[in-house]
Amino acid sequence: MAESWTGIVVGLCALSAAALLVAVHYWREMTRRRKLSRMDHRDWWEVMRDRR
Predict the structure, then answer these.
(1) Phi, psi of 42 (to 5 degrees)
(2) pLDDT at 41
(3) pLDDT, tens digit, for every residue of 11-51?
(4) pLDDT in tens, 5-18
(5) Residue 30: exposed, middle, or buried by beta-carbon count in 10 A (0-12, 13-18, 19+)?
(6) CA angle 31, 37, 46 (to 5 degrees)
(7) Which of 23, 1, 5 is nearest to 13 (CA)?
(8) Is the predicted pLDDT of residue 1 greater than 80, yes or no?
(9) Where does the pLDDT of residue 2 fall: very low under 50, low under 70, confident under 90, or very high at 90 and above?
(10) Whole-angstrom Cα distance, residue 20 to residue 50?
(11) Angle at Cα 22 formed by Cα 19 and Cα 27, nearest 5°?
């Protein structure tokens, strides 16, 4: 019985680590997109002209 509990605990730890890695990857990707959008150096009048 102890061997099956060990497998369950190890599996839950692996799933928790995988979920954490996915969350960190998503957060870093959103941060990268936000930083890249801020690097857009168009002047404000060009942006406003394109909106019409």
Answers:
(1) -70, 145
(2) 67
(3) 999 999 999 999 999 999 999 998 888 776 666 666 677 66
(4) 999 999 999 999 99
(5) exposed
(6) 165
(7) 5
(8) no
(9) confident
(10) 40
(11) 125
Got the DSSP string for the chain? -HHHHHHHHHHHHHHHHHHHHHHHHHHHHHHHHHHHHHT----HHHHHHHH-
Hunting for tokens 């497998």 — which residue is that? Answer: 7
CB-side neighbour CA atoms (13 Å) of 10: 6
Q: What are 45's two structure tokens?
A: 């009048």
pTM: 0.62
Tell me the backbone φ, ψ of residue 44, rounded to 5 degrees. Answer: -65, -30
d(CA 4, CA 39): 53
